């Protein structure tokens, strides 16, 4: 039996190799903006669009747990880490939709860069049947599609009133006014490989874990 709908929940996926403030701070701002009750972090196992992570699945999961240990907004879901096949967002959303019920307001958080390439995603036309899309601003990315049909798709589904997201289970796109945090995991790995400190870019507990595990050393 499906549970009674709770407040608006959102998923936020990534390799989190490592998790850092560029992941966490825009999502925290977005949560305040749209009234998110819960953000479920979803570490990917085999990301379809990018190279394999340097840290192991167990290490990346531990870093996520350390990053959110004092923040009740966040929880973590390990289902994608347990897969040996590529993690397709649509499959994960379909699973969660079955578990949460058809009426639960559910969103998926992406960056502006992902929105602009969403038509390359597996089964992308079905995403809004399963969830809302919440978009975080990203430094240096355009705010509209070049292709007229994709821009029309965006305009058709875009909403500017956050309460719509809590009142409906899926189907809308909300572009958040989130801080532009110009931090990348690639930059962090490179700094660590050069022996440079970067404890201001990620939670202290994550930084200590990286040092303890000798991660990202060249």
From TrEMBL:
One of its GO terms (molecular function) is ATP binding. The keyword Cytoplasm does not apply. Pfam families: CTP_transf_like (PF01467). It comes from the Bacteria. InterPro entries: Cyt_trans-like (IPR004821), NadD/NMNAT (IPR005248), Rossmann-like_a/b/a_fold (IPR014729). Residues 11-190 form the Cytidyltransferase-like domain. It is an enzyme of class 2 (transferase). It catalyses: nicotinate beta-D-ribonucleotide + ATP + H(+) = deamido-NAD(+) + diphosphate. GO terms for biological process: NAD+ biosynthetic process. Pathway: Cofactor biosynthesis; NAD(+) biosynthesis; deamido-NAD(+) from nicotinate D-ribonucleotide: step 1/1. Gene3D superfamilies: HUPs. Keywords: ATP-binding, NAD, Nucleotide-binding, Nucleotidyltransferase, Pyridine nucleotide biosynthesis, Transferase. Signal peptide: none annotated. Its EC number is 2.7.7.18. Catalyzes the reversible adenylation of nicotinate mononucleotide (NaMN) to nicotinic acid adenine dinucleotide (NaAD). Belongs to the NadD family. This is Probable nicotinate-nucleotide adenylyltransferase. It comes from Providencia alcalifaciens DSM 30120.
